[in-house]
């Protein structure tokens, strides 16, 4: 196991006692305490940002090959302790065993590997020479130019609770690869994995102050990590409401932002769709992270001619899913993250009933589970576009279905949203699906798939976010572009 101090913050290369004591991290499946997480004060978050600022000049000048080697070693160290990491990730996030292993720790390792390579990507792009006539700016001449990507500085990374390995790795690794230093504030529900990640980075040889982690059960540490004068950029994954508050603070300080916020993904199922493919894709909302994922196709828009058939197939899919203990390898649907979030999801289902939606399946707590924060996969039919359950992000295993009569109406309904992260189109005519995809106001569109290309830009339109990351786009996100001009 990587050498680290449980229950301590990581500031300036040292494990520090938290000023505010500790709080309990709870297993969503058993309601038992997984461990104690440190409660950082505002002063400690500011201290972490100051340490990152002090470490920045030397780290920014470090050879790319050295940064790459540290990121590669980090991946090796995480891989070495893979079983223990997957176990703690499952226990603190409620993810199933396969998800904790493959999509959490496994993807976290892959991202450190990817940005070890990313550290070596060129940062200079030649600009075409320009001929200038003599004038007030000087003599005539041919002027060359370079566009050079430079690190932003100190980046505060505020991460989501649904993936305590892949999400932080997707921020920390590209930020470090570009020469930035970071202050990481994990989600309060599952910070233990991120502290393990910090320990792996320290063991890999990251210099003191380059990576700092402050945790807390409330907003105090995160707010301080955003408003610190030493912070140049904030990278946030979470709800749109919190993102808006962070953006207001960033705006006052002109801090750079990367915001990956909420979603209400439209799944447009046309009359010529392969219904089996559509059901399998939409059905992931019922199971993957128990619907706690912003990219989920939660808002199904289906051609009226296929409406009843799709409802029946989705209900059968949901009813066939095993809901239960995520430690059991037969489990497909685990709990949601907390009792408060379970209450929120259940309140939305009840709201849907009151708004006139028909609960086809689900809508009640699984009767066979007497503890844990479980929500049964729920399908709401006969929905209309004005319902709150159709317009607002529920962030749970709940799918709403709205019929449409023709392609134009379907596209209009898909675009009638405050969000625009990832939409989906299912059609047997791929050319038609691509044509429709170009009309959708979303940062990404899946054509006959919910799969992702992990080099493609990721981010949202409208209230789903600001900026793009993933692949080389993440390296661009954590950099500023500088122009260097000279006479030829």
Automatic annotation (TrEMBL):
Gene3D superfamilies for the chain: Aldehyde Dehydrogenase, Chain A, domain 1, Aldehyde Dehydrogenase, Chain A, domain 2
Pfam families from the UniProt entry: Aldedh (PF00171)
Segments forming domain Aldehyde dehydrogenase: 15-484
InterPro entries: Ald_DH/histidinol_DH, Ald_DH_C, Ald_DH_N, Aldehyde_DH_dom
Record EC number: 1.2.1.3
Enzyme class (EC, first level): oxidoreductase
Superkingdom per UniProt: Bacteria
One function term, GO molecular function aspect: aldehyde dehydrogenase (NAD+) activity
Keywords: Oxidoreductase
Keyword Cell membrane: no
Keyword Signal attributed: no
The protein's name: Aldehyde dehydrogenase (EC)
Organism of derivation: Streptomyces globisporus
């Amino acid at each position: 196991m990587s050498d680290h101090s449980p229950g301590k913050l990581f500031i300036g290369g040292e494990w520090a006692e938290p000023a505010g004591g500790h709080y309990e991290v709870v297993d969503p499946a058993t309601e038992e305490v997984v461990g104690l997480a440190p409660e950082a004060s505002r002063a400690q978050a500011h201290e972490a940002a100051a340490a990152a600022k002090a470490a920045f000049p030397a780290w920014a000048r470090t050879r790319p090959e050295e940064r790459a080697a540290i990121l590669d070693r980090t991946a090796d160290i995480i891989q070495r302790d893979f079983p223990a990491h997957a176990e703690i990730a499952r226990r603190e996030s409620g993810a199933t065993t396969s998800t904790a292993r493959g999509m959490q720790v496994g993807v976290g390792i892959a991202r450190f590997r990817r940005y070890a390579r990313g550290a070596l990507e060129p940062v200079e792009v030649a600009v075409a020479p320009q001929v200038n006539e003599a004038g007030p700016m000087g003599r005539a001449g041919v002027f060359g130019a370079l566009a050079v990507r430079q690190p932003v500085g100190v980046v505060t990374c505020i991460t989501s609770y649904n993936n305590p390995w892949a999400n932080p790795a997707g921020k920390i690794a590209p930020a470090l690869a570009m020469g930035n230093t970071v202050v990481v504030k994990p989600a309060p529900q599952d910070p233990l994995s991120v502290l393990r990640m910090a320990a792996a980075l320290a063991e890999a040889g990251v210099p003191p102050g380059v990576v700092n982690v402050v945790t807390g059960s409330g907003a105090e540490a995160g707010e301080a990590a955003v408003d610190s004068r030493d912070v140049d950029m904030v990278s946030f994954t979470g709800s749109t409401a919190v993102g808006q508050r962070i953006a207001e603070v960033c705006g006052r300080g002109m801090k750079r932002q990367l915001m990956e916020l909420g979603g209400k993904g439209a799944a447009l199922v046309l009359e010529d769709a392969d219904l089996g493919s559509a059901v399998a894709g939409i059905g992931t909302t019922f199971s993957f992270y128990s619907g706690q994922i912003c990219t989920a196709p939660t808002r199904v828009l289906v051609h009226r001619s296929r409406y009843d058939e799709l409802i029946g197939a989705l209900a059968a899919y949901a009813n066939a899913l095993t809901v239960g203990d995520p430690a059991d390898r037969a489990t497909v649907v685990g709990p949601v993250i907390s009792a408060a979030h379970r209450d929120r999801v259940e309140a939305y289902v009840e709201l849907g009933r009151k708004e006139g939606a028909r609960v086809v399946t689900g809508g009640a707590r699984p009767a066979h589970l007497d503890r844990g924060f479980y929500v049964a996969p729920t399908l709401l039919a006969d929905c209309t576009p004005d319902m709150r359950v159709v317009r607002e992000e529920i962030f749970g295993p709940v799918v709403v279905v709205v019929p449409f009569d023709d392609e134009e109406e379907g596209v209009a309904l898909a675009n009638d949203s405050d969000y625009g992260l990832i939409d989906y189109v299912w059609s047997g005519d791929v050319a038609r699906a691509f044509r429709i995809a170009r009309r959708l106001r979303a940062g990404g569109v899946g054509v006959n798939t919910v799969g992702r290309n992990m080099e493609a830009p990721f981010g949202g339109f409208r209230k789903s976010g600001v900026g793009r990351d993933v692949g080389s786009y993440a390296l661009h996100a954590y950099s500023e572009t500088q122009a260097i001009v000279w006479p030829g």
